[in-house]
Amino acid sequence: LYRQARCKLLLLKMGERGLLTYRADSTISQAFFTVDSFVDHLVDAVGSGDALLAYASLSYAVTRNRFSRASVIASVLGSLAAAVACEQEGNVAVNPADVIKKIDLAAKAADL
């Protein structure tokens, strides 16, 4: 799929199993990695792909020239936004404040 798409970064949603990211960056030793799902209470998965794409694309565009781990930032932020979408009814826009709350909850759970 990665070769057929001829892309530099591929994010593949895997439902409750999270996200698989594949990247072609020779400066990074691992070509792919996974991000677990951040969904705490699944209500409706409709719109989660839209949220993932929107947040991951924007964060990747902003960070790709400044951070060597831009693909990690994009994947985690996109996954967090997708989780927020999954915890709401219907396909509604994901509010940045809700994503920030989700980040805070994840940080607290990781005891950061």
Which helices and strands appear, and what pairs or packs with what?
Elements: H1 2-5, E1 9-13, E2 19-23, E3 32-35, H2 48-63, H3 70-86, H4 96-109
Antiparallel strand pairs: 1-2, 2-3
Give the topology string: H per helix, E per strand: HEEEHHH
| Cα-to-Cα separation, first versus last residue | 36 Å
Rounded mean pLDDT is 90
Which class of secondary structure composition applies to the elements? alpha+beta
Q: In which order are the strands of the major sheet placed?
A: 1-2-3
**Biggest β-sheet strands, sense, barrel:** 3 strands, antiparallel
Residues in helices, as a percent range? 40-55%
Number of helices: 4
Number of strands: 3
What shape does the CA trace take?
globular
Q: Report the β-strand fraction as a percent range.
A: 5-15%
Unreliable stretches, pLDDT < 50, 5 or more residues?
Answer: none
Radius of gyration over alpha carbons? 14 Å
What does this structure look like?
This protein is α+β, with helices and mostly antiparallel strands and 112 residues long. Helices cover 46% and strands 12% of the residues. The chain is built from 4 helices and 3 strands. Strands 1-2-3 form a 3-stranded antiparallel sheet, with helices on one face. The longest helix is centred in the last third of the chain and has 17 residues. It is globular, with a radius of gyration of 14 Å.
